[in-house]
Request: fold
Amino acid sequence: MGASRVAILMGSDSDWPIMKKAAIMLNELGVANEAHVMSAHRTPDDVADFVREAPGRGIDVFIAGAGMAAHLAGVVAAFTTRPVIAVPIAAKNLEGLDALLAMVQMPPGVPVATVAVDGAKNAAILAAQILGIADAEIASTLDAYKQSMADAVRAKSVSLD
Reply:
């Protein structure tokens, strides 16, 4: 893996147990990535600077995880034309519904793709699918991954006998 292609951002280090699943999946698929903690509310200038500079460092896709008010993905999307994938993180009060609604209700012109609550693994797969459009190696790795999932399901069916 060379320079990072995907930036994984989270509002707090307490989000890392969920967001680490994105890093693990991207590593499994051979997609270079990096992770950072930055807050849309407490360090907005850091977020803006990072997002503006990221394409020059090779970042093609952003994955942003946050809970509760969950503005990080929207703030990232405000500063880039690169794809942004949001991961709503379940907090104890509303179990992630608040974050999910904040992420999917973006205004026109500021799209954010959103996966399921705590769905960091799917965010990684979606990021790889986006990159795989123009990268045959990533596309091939994804094909093999999907085939292995299908094989596992078929094996479980056979084991029912």
The mean pLDDT is 95. The chain has one domain: 6-158.
